[in-house]
UniProtKB/TrEMBL annotation:
Top-rank taxon, per record: Eukaryota
Cited InterPro entries: APP-Binding (IPR051230), PDZ (IPR001478), PDZ_6 (IPR041489), PDZ_sf (IPR036034)
Protein name (database record): Putative pdz domain containing protein
Keywords associated with the record: Repeat
Domain PDZ: 102-181, 186-261
GO cellular component: cytoplasm; plasma membrane
């Protein structure tokens, strides 16, 4: 999947692709358009070109005009609709990447996408992804920022209005521009010889960092909620379940964390059982 540094870069690339395709179509439809004027009074005009001063000079031009610019490879991401196929992303959704990506969603047989949105600081963010839903299959994650829906920019919109745009949108080809989880970050920590990560947790919240631990050396912070373990969502899990999952991990564990204040704001309208039993927990390579 192509990632772009800005919203504008993504849009410009789309225009470039359309322009290049139009140029290719024109060239393929008119292969002999200038064949009849290739010679004039015995001169081969193919051996002349106009220089930067507008003068007709002999020789070959330094560059061939009209050659399409090759854009970065684009991979569409689409969830399964009521009748449709599934196209999934090639990159790991557990990895936070700096950039803007395009996701194309479809509604399921019930007309649902399987996502809930909330506004934070004039932006719209994903607060819930239902397991097995089109949103989950397409790779949307908790904390992703939605920049636009079907070319409508969402800056300053409440989450309810963004949800309304999705509900009123088409059954297929709901184009969403996404920035990966800007409030979250990943920290890789190594287990000690006893298998300890060096953290104390309470309901998934990091309450303490143990002295001289890998967590301390790598800058893990207290008052942060653990969102993912090695790319798998763990929100809503009981501490016993979370600790068992951490024990099953290898010697190095990648933790995705978010400030607790942000987390509480994002989930304040969700039922605890909804997070615990219905949240998407698919693995990054699924």
């Amino acid at each position: 999947m192509s990632l772009y540094p800005t919203f504008e870069d993504l849009k410009v690339d789309g225009l470039m692709q359309a322009q290049n395709q139009a140029l290719i179509d024109t060239q393929s439809n008119n292969p002999d358009a200038y064949g009849a004027i290739a010679t004039y009074m015995g001169l081969d005009l193919n051996n002349f070109y106009y220089n930067e001063f507008g003068e007709l000079v002999p020789g070959s031009p330094p560059s061939v005009p009209g050659v399409p610019v090759t854009p970065p490879q684009q991979v569409a991401v689409c969830a399964s609709g009521a009748s449709g196929t599934i196209v999934t992303t090639n990159s790991s959704p557990g990895e936070i990447k700096h950039g803007v990506r395009r996701v194309v969603l479809c509604k399921d047989a019930k007309g649902k996408v399987g996502v809930q949105l909330v506004d934070v600081d004039n932006g719209v963010f994903v607060s819930f992804v239902r397991a097995g839903s089109p949103a989950a299959i397409a790779g949307l994650r908790f904390g992703d920022q939605l920049l636009s829906i079907c070319d409508r920019v969402l800056a300053g919109h409440p989450g309810s209005k963004a949800m309304e745009r999705i509900r009123k949108g088409p059954d297929n080809n709901i184009e969403v521009l996404v920035r990966d989880r800007p409030f979250e970050r990943t920290v890789v920590v190594n287990k000690s010889s006893s298998g300890d990560l060096g953290i104390s947790i309470d309901d998934g919240l990091i309450k303490a960092i143990h002295k001289d631990s890998s967590a301390a050396r790598n800058g893990l912070l207290t008052d942060h909620q653990i969102v993912e373990v090695d790319g798998q969502n763990v929100l809503g899990l009981k501490d016993k379940q979370l600790k068992e999952l951490l024990q099953r991990c290898g010697s190095s564990v990648r933790l995705t964390i978010v400030p607790y204040s942000i987390y509480k704001h994002m989930v304040k309208r969700l039922w605890k059982d909804q997070i615990r039993h219905e949240m998407d927990r698919s693995l990054p390579d699924a």
